[in-house]
Amino acid sequence: MAQKIVTVYTDDLTGAESDEVGTHTFSLNGVYYEIDLTPENYDKLDAALRPFIENGRKQGRTKGAPRVRRSAAEGPSAEEVRAWARENGFAVNGRGRVPREVREAFEAAH
Protein backbone atom coordinates (compact mmCIF):
# COMPACT_ATOMS: atom_id res chain seq x y z
CA MET A 1 0.00 0.00 0.00
CA ALA A 2 1.35 3.42 -0.94
CA GLN A 3 0.59 6.47 1.10
CA LYS A 4 1.04 10.09 0.13
CA ILE A 5 1.35 12.82 2.75
CA VAL A 6 0.36 16.30 1.62
CA THR A 7 1.38 19.45 3.48
CA VAL A 8 -1.09 22.31 3.21
CA TYR A 9 0.04 25.82 4.13
CA THR A 10 -2.79 27.91 5.57
CA ASP A 11 -2.93 31.60 6.46
CA ASP A 12 -3.85 31.82 10.17
CA LEU A 13 -5.73 35.07 9.68
CA THR A 14 -7.98 34.16 6.74
CA GLY A 15 -7.75 30.37 6.51
CA ALA A 16 -6.69 30.69 2.87
CA GLU A 17 -4.40 27.98 1.51
CA SER A 18 -1.27 29.14 -0.32
CA ASP A 19 2.23 27.95 -1.17
CA GLU A 20 3.46 31.44 -0.25
CA VAL A 21 2.48 31.28 3.44
CA GLY A 22 5.38 32.13 5.74
CA THR A 23 5.79 31.84 9.49
CA HIS A 24 6.43 35.11 11.33
CA THR A 25 7.23 35.74 14.98
CA PHE A 26 6.73 38.80 17.13
CA SER A 27 6.44 39.63 20.81
CA LEU A 28 4.37 41.92 22.95
CA ASN A 29 4.71 42.40 26.70
CA GLY A 30 7.22 39.58 26.94
CA VAL A 31 4.96 37.05 25.22
CA TYR A 32 6.18 35.58 21.93
CA TYR A 33 3.75 34.84 19.14
CA GLU A 34 4.08 32.93 15.89
CA ILE A 35 1.67 33.34 12.98
CA ASP A 36 1.51 31.93 9.45
CA LEU A 37 0.58 34.58 6.89
CA THR A 38 0.43 35.11 3.14
CA PRO A 39 2.62 37.98 1.90
CA GLU A 40 -0.46 40.22 1.61
CA ASN A 41 -1.46 39.67 5.25
CA TYR A 42 2.13 40.06 6.42
CA ASP A 43 2.15 43.47 4.70
CA LYS A 44 -1.01 44.36 6.66
CA LEU A 45 0.64 43.30 9.94
CA ASP A 46 3.77 45.28 9.08
CA ALA A 47 1.72 48.38 8.17
CA ALA A 48 -0.24 48.16 11.43
CA LEU A 49 2.91 47.84 13.56
CA ARG A 50 5.11 50.24 11.57
CA PRO A 51 4.16 53.47 13.48
CA PHE A 52 4.93 51.77 16.80
CA ILE A 53 8.19 50.28 15.54
CA GLU A 54 9.35 53.63 14.14
CA ASN A 55 8.58 55.46 17.39
CA GLY A 56 9.61 52.79 19.86
CA ARG A 57 13.00 52.25 21.46
CA LYS A 58 14.79 49.24 20.06
CA GLN A 59 15.98 46.77 22.68
CA GLY A 60 17.98 44.61 20.30
CA ARG A 61 17.24 41.28 18.75
CA THR A 62 15.93 38.35 20.70
CA LYS A 63 16.71 34.74 20.02
CA GLY A 64 13.04 33.84 20.01
CA ALA A 65 10.78 32.42 22.60
CA PRO A 66 12.46 30.20 25.16
CA ARG A 67 11.83 26.57 24.34
CA VAL A 68 10.54 24.22 26.97
CA ARG A 69 12.41 20.93 26.94
CA ARG A 70 10.26 17.87 27.29
CA SER A 71 11.52 14.77 28.97
CA ALA A 72 12.10 11.78 26.76
CA ALA A 73 8.84 10.16 25.75
CA GLU A 74 8.19 6.55 26.53
CA GLY A 75 7.98 4.15 23.65
CA PRO A 76 9.95 3.75 20.44
CA SER A 77 12.39 6.38 19.25
CA ALA A 78 11.63 8.49 16.21
CA GLU A 79 14.37 6.65 14.30
CA GLU A 80 12.76 3.27 15.06
CA VAL A 81 9.41 4.55 13.81
CA ARG A 82 11.03 6.03 10.69
CA ALA A 83 12.77 2.75 9.88
CA TRP A 84 9.50 0.84 10.26
CA ALA A 85 7.67 3.46 8.16
CA ARG A 86 10.17 3.21 5.30
CA GLU A 87 9.94 -0.60 5.34
CA ASN A 88 6.15 -0.30 5.13
CA GLY A 89 5.92 2.19 2.28
CA PHE A 90 5.50 5.46 4.19
CA ALA A 91 7.36 8.55 3.00
CA VAL A 92 9.11 10.11 6.00
CA ASN A 93 11.81 12.74 6.41
CA GLY A 94 15.13 11.89 8.02
CA ARG A 95 14.73 14.66 10.59
CA GLY A 96 12.01 16.45 12.51
CA ARG A 97 8.76 15.17 13.94
CA VAL A 98 7.32 11.92 12.73
CA PRO A 99 3.80 12.57 11.40
CA ARG A 100 0.97 11.50 13.70
CA GLU A 101 -0.47 9.21 11.02
CA VAL A 102 2.82 7.31 10.81
CA ARG A 103 3.09 6.96 14.62
CA GLU A 104 -0.52 5.73 14.78
CA ALA A 105 0.13 3.17 12.03
CA PHE A 106 3.28 2.02 13.87
CA GLU A 107 1.36 1.63 17.14
CA ALA A 108 -1.45 -0.25 15.40
CA ALA A 109 1.08 -2.67 13.89
CA HIS A 110 2.78 -3.39 17.23
Layout of helices and strands:
Elements: E1 22-28, E2 31-37, H1 39-55, H2 78-87, H3 100-109
Antiparallel strand pairs: 1-2
Helix pairs in contact: 2-3
Write out key terms for the chains shown.
110 residues; alpha+beta; Wheat Germ Agglutinin (Isolectin 2), domain 1; 2 domains; two-stranded antiparallel sheet; elongated; E3-bd_dom_sf
Instruction: Give the overall silhouette.
Output: elongated
Ends: how far apart? 18 Å
Just name the CATH architecture of the largest domain: 2-Layer Sandwich
Mean pLDDT: 86
Give a written overview of the molecule.
- Keywords: DNA-binding.
- It comes from Streptomyces levis.
- The chain is of the alpha+beta class and 110 residues long.
- The protein has two domains: 55 residues, Wheat Germ Agglutinin (Isolectin 2), domain 1; 32 residues, no CATH class.
- Helix content is 34%, strand content 13%.
- Helix 2 crosses helix 3.
- The longest helix is centred in the middle third of the chain and has 17 residues.
- The chain is elongated.
- The mean pLDDT is 86.
Describe the structure concisely for a colleague:
The protein has three helices and two strands, in the order ββααα. The protein is α+β, with helices and mostly antiparallel strands and 110 residues long. The chain is elongated and about 60 Å long.
